[in-house]
Amino acid sequence: MNQILLKHHGANLTRHEITACYALIRHNIRTYDSAGVVEVIKGRQNAEAAVRRFEQMQSSEDRQIGWRYLIVEESGLTPGMDPQQATQQRQMDLEKRESGAMTSVNSELWRRHPSS
Prior knowledge:
Elements: E1 4-8, E2 11-14, H1 15-19, E3 21-28, E4 34-42, H2 44-57, H3 60-64, E5 67-73, H4 83-112
Antiparallel strand pairs: 1-2, 3-4, 3-5
C-alpha cells in the first residue's frame, strides 16, 4: 500500500519516499567527475535538507568550477554508513549491473546470429 502520508513543498510524499534510503553524491557537472557518496540518509525530505545544507557550506569557487550535490535512491545502502564504503558499494553494484547487461546483450546477439 503506497498511502500518502504527508505533504512537502506542495507535493505528496509516499510511504516509500519517507522510508527509502538516499545517497548524496558530489558530482562535477563540467568534467563529469564524481567525488562519490558524501552521506547516506533515510527519507526524501531528509535528503533534500542535507543537499541544501551541503550547498550552503559550499564555497562559491567550488560551485563555479562545477561541483554539485545529487540525490540518488539506493536500496542497498544503510543510513549513516561510511561515505567511502558507500561509494565502493555503489561502484561494485554498478559494475555488476553493467556486466549483467553486457551478458544479456551478447547472449541476444548470439541467439540472433549464431556462428556457423
